[in-house]
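Hey, can you fold this one?
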Amino acid sequence: MALMKSLALNPVLVDDELRLRLRRIIHVEVDDSMIDLLAYIVLHEPITLYRISKNTKYAISTVYKKAKRMMYYGLIRPYAYDVEDCDREKTIYETTVTGLLLCLAYKCVDDEVVLNRLCHKWQMRSYCCQRLLKTLYVLPALLEIDSNNMRVIEEPRALMVMILNNAEKLRGLVNENLFRETINTATHYLVSRLFLDGQIVTKSSLLLGNEKFVVNVSLDGDVYVYMCKLCSKQCTATNLAINSQCTLLHEIKKIVWGTLH
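Sure. Predicted structure:
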């Protein structure tokens, strides 16, 4: 509700350019009935297919057919099963992030509703809608770097790590203001997760940080600085020389030493 109030006070428009770019990165052939049913699920999720058929003009056979197609494209997924009966009619469905983005691309419901759902699924309910939109505007560029990145958008922490890991490439694909705001959002998000989960370990590196800095330390010992506010330089998206006398190196060593002992 907080996001909805924020949008009401400060209306934010999703422009046609973003909608078009979202259509291009989500390779799904849609028709009017699929958009109608996706919109209904967005508005009423989680919901069974039987209830969708009961409350819309579509026959249950049509709903099943379209739901199967939407699941194939990753637009919806099973949310839960009836404890007494696990047949298909009792399966409860919800939208995925991909489904919400497609809904946004075709404006199948009000943008405010979709943004609210995205905030919930990406665990960004404490963020303002502008930060969420900045992340959305970066997605097409992120997928231009590697189309396989589409697989991680369902998991917010993986998405933010991916943004930071591709920071240098992103810098050349988006304007400087959008780049910095997106890096700041990803950094802030991961710092909050660091406090909850401890250090974040990726496949080949370790993400370390606190409210003053966030860095990525590779297995080879290379240090990439996403954000640092330990001194007046206020470094962002840069490599740190191992032989540097920077205060940041001492902070990293303290964290790593404390982790090992």
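The chain has a mean pLDDT of 81. Let me know if you want another pass with a different chain boundary.
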